[in-house]
Design goal:
The protein has four helices and three strands. By secondary structure, it is of the alpha+beta class. The longest helix has 13 residues. The chain is elongated, with a radius of gyration of 20 Å. Bound molecules: flavin-adenine dinucleotide (FAD).
Length: 104
């Protein structure tokens, strides 16, 4: 979990989660909600988890490349950078922006 976080952020986060007694399930897929149960599937099969007040869904991001196809079809010197290329973080977006600007 959190493999793409910086060490400083991950270490603090892991400590807080541990302190709060948070149970972390990896390689586990949520396959259904039926309040108050959540059905999950892992290598051992499917099972129900219980005891939730609320559920927060945070499944990551996906680039919307609709405009990219249009820009690429025009006769322009367009470069795809940042999250439009692939959702990541600010440092990568800024560095790719700088690189693209220096090539103009
Ligand atoms: C909730 C959340 C938390 C995050 N936390 C962090 C963090 O702590 N640290 C970190 O490094 N990164 C974080 N990120 C990721 C970071 O925000 C992005 O990687 C970064 O903003 C990407 O920059 P970008 O310029 O590629 O895209 P964006 O910052 O998304 O900029 C794209 C811009 O284009 C505009 N736009 C879109 N469509 C059009 C259109 N048709 N016409 C005109 N304008 C348009 C949008 O309004 C937006 O202003 C977070 C992202 C999210 C969603």
């Amino acid at each position: 979990m959190g493999w793409d976080l910086s060490d400083s952020v991950r270490i603090c986060l892991e400590a807080r989660l541990k302190q709060k007694g948070v149970q972390i399930l990896i390689s586990t897929k949520v396959i259904g909600f039926n309040h108050p149960d959540i059905a999950v599937q892992d290598a051992g099969g499917t099972r129900k988890l219980q005891g939730f007040d609320s559920v927060v869904i945070c499944l990551g991001y996906k680039a919307d490349d609709e405009m990219v196809a249009w820009v690429s079809s025009q006769e322009t010197d367009a470069r795809l950078i940042g999250d439009a290329l692939q959702p990541r973080d600010v440092m990568e977006a800024v560095s790719e922006g700088l690189e693209a600007a220096l090539k103009i």
